[in-house]
Specification:
The complex is a heterodimer. Chain A is mainly alpha-helical. Chain A contains 2 helices and no strands. The mean pLDDT of chain A is 78. By secondary structure, chain B is mainly α. Classes of the chains: A mainly alpha, B mainly alpha.
């Protein structure tokens, strides 16, 4: 790869890279900021709540897709 | 390395770097927040795509109802959604097991933190493969 395409690639990918860096930096800051006050119950309950929510949302999508295919109101 | 793969590699690199220097409890907390953000980002897009595929199928079938097996696009989309959910569920399961160990500063905690981050990486790979994250092809 020559220097010119590398530079072009860096310029083209700059917005995506910046977004990723910001997202990860934000996550790290959130995770470390509260490092002293991390509570086991909160972490476990949040994980359980996320799992339940995902299950419900997937079921909702499946139902909607089936409704659309069956020519019922899917949304 | 293909140019379009770079953002994904960068994301993984940052995840690995993020894991360094953090306690297992912080890593577990980090994984939990990342799992939440990944789902919030990707689920609405997958939902929209699955419904669009179903509508496409329904309209081509005319006025007759159709079935999921007769609609490969929607079927594939739902399979992707399920695989994505299962990967994130594995991450949250690792968090549920690892959090008490991490708080008690037991040695197994780091392994569970790694499992949670690995599950997150798998989910990101699924989303990337379906073209919903940078670096993938639909």
């Amino acid at each position: 790869m020559t220097p010119v395409p590398v530079a072009a690639a860096v310029v083209a990918l700059a917005p995506a890279i910046t977004t990723l860096i910001a997202l990860v930096a934000d996550l790290i800051a959130e995770a470390t900021e509260t490092g002293e006050d991390l509570d086991m119950t909160t972490i476990m309950e949040a994980a359980q709540a996320r799992t339940t929510l995902r299950q419900a949302e997937v079921a909702k999508t499946v139902k909607a897709v089936m409704g659309i295919l069956a020519k019922k109101d899917g949304d | 390395m293909k140019r379009e793969k770079f953002p994904f590699v960068a994301a993984l690199l940052f995840l690995v770097l993020a894991g360094c220097g953090m306690t297992p409890l912080q890593r577990i907390n980090f994984a939990g927040k990342a799992i939440e953000k990944t789902w919030k980002h990707t689920y609405p897009r997958l939902d929209k795509r699955c419904k669009a595929e179903a509508r496409k199928c329904a309209s081509s079938a005319g006025s007759q109802p159709t079935t999921l097996p007769a609609c490969p696009g929607a079927q594939k989309c739902l399979k992707t959604l399920e695989a994505f959910k299962v990967a994130l569920d594995a991450g949250d399961a690792a968090i549920i097991v690892g959090a008490p160990l991490a708080l008690a500063k037991k040695p197994g905690a780091a392994g569970w933190a790694k499992m949670a981050l690995d599950a997150l990486s798998r989910a990101v790979a699924i989303a990337r493969k379906s073209g919903l994250l940078p670096g993938g092809t639909p």
